[in-house]
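Researcher: For the record, we're logging two predictions in this thread. I'll number them. Prediction 1 follows.
Model: Prediction 1, sequence and structure:
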Amino acid sequence: MLTTGAADPLFLAFQLALAGRYSILREAGRGGMGVVYLAREVHLDRLVAIKLLPPERAQRPELRERFLREARIAAKLSHPHIIPIHAVDQIDGFVFFVMAYVEGETLAERIRSRGPVSASDGVRMLREVAWALAYAHAQGVVHRDVKPDNILIEASTGRALVTDFGIAAVIGDGDAGGVSGTPEYMSPEQALGCTIDARSDLYGLGATAFYAFAGRPPFEGRSAEEVLARQVTEPAPPLASLGIAVPRKLATLVDQCLAKEPASRPASAESFAEQAGRTIDAQRTLPAALRAFVRRNGRMDGGGTLLYGTVVLTTSLGVSTLLGTREAFATFAAGLAFAPIGFAVLAARRLLRLGFAHADLGPAFRAELESGREERAVERGRNRFFESMVSWVARVSTSFSVIAVPAIALGLLLPDRATAAAAAIPVTVATIFVAITSGLAYLATVQSRRDVDTEFWSSVWTGRLGTFAFTLARRLRGTQAVGPAMTHRATELSLGMAAEQLYESLPKETRRALGDLPALLERLQHAAQRLRSRYDDLNAAVESQGPSQASDDLDALRDERTLVHDKLTGAVGALETIRLNLLRLHAGSAAVEGLTTHIGIAEEVSAEIERMVAAQQDVDATLRFPRALEPTPV
């Protein structure tokens, strides 16, 4: 519907100047940087957006010329995630550019209406924005005003598109002495009026990511001056400190973008996109067999479990009729005891047949828990009142039942109390029923925000029962089939599994001469996994403090991180050496004696790592690592 614009002289004058080329439908937005109109291009019959430089600014020749120059530069950018500019022109004193019209909403509008985005959606949008920035940087164009209002989310596809390249800086230059941009998303060097480059856009991208996940920018204030002062002087709060359901590595990447020093930020927008993708791609690269195992096949909670319980109970009743109560109870207990073991061995055997190993389950369960956290994040705080009430009812009713049941049993044994005890039985039974019902309801509410079920089965399969099941399944099955290379595996797991498969394919006499090599391989893998986990914790603790943080505690953490990294490299190197020597042994180019020498060295590496890890565990138990470091006063 065309608007008359009778109350807006600028609308009428601009439409008159564009007559025959563009038919303006309505004003789409207005701000200090210009007025945006939705229009239809007459000759091509397509919707376009026209951004007009305010006439009072267009009267200044230097600002007008720079506006046109930089708009023409931006018009040369052609990228799927950059809104294209069709024309840059000036007519009858009006300076404007015409860009494609994309139906949708800005990222800022989406966050205001729907709240923070999930980790997966946020990473997808941020990667698309980063690709657009990387392309622009390669063309020598720096955006200088990366913020949620300049990121458009297309309604039909969800695609993220960047708009307003170079425009904000041009307009700001005329009024702010070289300082341009939006205070909440402006880099420190930009706020100080220093020379900026592509790394300034990365700061804006980090602030935008912070806003997308947290629902607020990293710095806020009562005035633009206060926000700018905080941008320059205060370290940004670590994203992980806000308790947001995003992967730790993604939070660390956002924190790196918000570093005060440009050199401490990611090397490029392309590097940011690559690192952001890796934070969630590990979940997607899990093979289907592992995903099915952690979600269904590795759990005794299906219809078969209920049917088995019914069969065991029916069999026990039959035994009771034929042989007696004691034999029936033994049958029932044995059926319930051997069922989990039999199920675990069969499930492990199926997974081994597909080329996987017990060591694959830890990363698989962790990936499943990580993906579930962001889905449950939307439930945070929604049922807390109901949860607290159910928890209170469960505690009270359970406490009453624990006290009442022994009291009633004792009362029934005393003649003078038997009548009162019998009268209390219905109330106690009802209380027990309430305790059971409220307890189940409480577990259901907890499950809605925390995957208790997956956590339980993770502890089962990665613990002693899982280890026993895979060990027994491997012995029953014989040599494990060589599975394909899996991208979800850490380096130490891939090397260890490859070495173990090579060992198992050796002749029996050769395996005997090599001793208990599989046990050594398992110890090295386990040690390397613990070192890698420790390194990730240390790395997160160091990076969460910001590159400018300086303290004795932080230096100690950095030194320990270096030590752990060196030990991890040694463990992985020992596994690689054993694997290569096993390959040479298969090829006939190496002797058993040479391999035993390397095995001895690997034993020393494993023992040294175990001593270091044990010492670190003692220290951690005392200091409760990881601990928050006090920020250095500014």
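Researcher: Logged. Prediction 2.
Model: Prediction 2, sequence and structure:
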Amino acid sequence: MSAATLPGFQPLLDTTHQALLLSPYLGAAALAAAGVWAAVVRRRIRSARAALANRTSVEVVPTTGFDPSEGEVGRFSHHLARVRQAAGDIPARGAAVRLRYSADGGRMRCLLEGPARAAAILNLPGFAEVEVRSTRPGQGIEPVRFTTATGATR
């Protein structure tokens, strides 16, 4: 009994023959897919490096009466979570917010650092009794001043 007379052997031979005929095309498709994957990875790496090189920071200084409630802390964490959305399509590693705490002369100091595309959100005060200062000149948001009917500025 030869292998050609076994039942089900002919479909196996036909499938093997088709696979051998298509192998150059499958190899080319695999190479093209690997090239596209490499290009996407390279773009994401460059985007993350550019975002890390172009970051902004603001200093958050609490006043003497600073005592946040639990609700204010929750709102501030939500406020920081919006930075990722404002950063757009920057990879997560480039859109992360860094909090740096220090104490200078007995006064707590907090620096918020994030992507430059989200500078407007970083400059918003997160707590009621906190002063936000831009640490780099020219990056601060100027406050809106309203003049009343008597000419006084608020």
